[in-house]
Structures are given as C-alpha cells and as structure tokens.
Design a protein that fits this description.
- A hairpin with a 6-residue loop joins strand 1 and strand 2.
- The chain contains 2 helices and 5 strands; from the N terminus they run αβββββα.
- It is of the alpha+beta class.
Length: 96
C-alpha cells in the first residue's frame, strides 16, 4: 500500500483480497502454533472475521489472537491482532 492510503482504503483492499482468497493463518497468543483457517465475512458486522471450527480446535477456547494473510497474487500482506470468541447466535450461523 502506498504511504498515502487511508486506513479505510487499506481495510477495503484487505476485504476485497480476502474475498478472492478467504484463508488466513491464525493462532492464539498463548504460544500455540498458527493454523490455516477459512474466513467468512458478514457485511452486517464490519471488522469481524468468522471462522467455523470444531469445539476441540485449539482456537475454540478463545482469547487474544494473531492472524496473517497473504493475497492470492502475493500482492497484499496483512497481520491482524484481535480477540477470538465463540459466536452463539443461530441467525449468524444460518446467514453464513
């Protein structure tokens, strides 16, 4: 990204690239290794990435996490930090 790109422009580019290749590497900040996961987006919940996993997956317990993303054409790279938490809303499951 150019030095003059706004945070909004960077976010829009990231989401566009993520739609082309919805895969990230994600791991909890507790020292566990990152693992590849598939991401779903919900336009009604901006700044939220949804990942479906088994209850016994190591990220399912939640907590602080770090995710890395590489665009399909290797022309965009991102590193994100945030909080993993369990989603319990059935409407969200149905929509995604």
């Amino acid at each position: 990204m150019a030095d003059h790109d706004s945070p909004q422009e960077v976010a829009e580019t990231f989401l566009s690239k993520l739609e082309d290749s919805p895969f990230i590497m994600i791991g909890l900040m507790d020292g566990e290794h990152s693992e590849p996961m598939n991401v779903k987006l919900d336009e009604s919940q901006p700044n939220t990435l949804f990942i479906f996993s088994a209850h016994d997956n190591r990220i399912a317990k939640g907590g602080k996490a770090m995710a890395q993303f590489v665009g399909k054409g290797h022309d965009f790279f991102a590193c994100l930090s945030g909080q993993v938490r369990q989603e319990t809303d059935q409407a969200t499951f149905d929509r995604l």
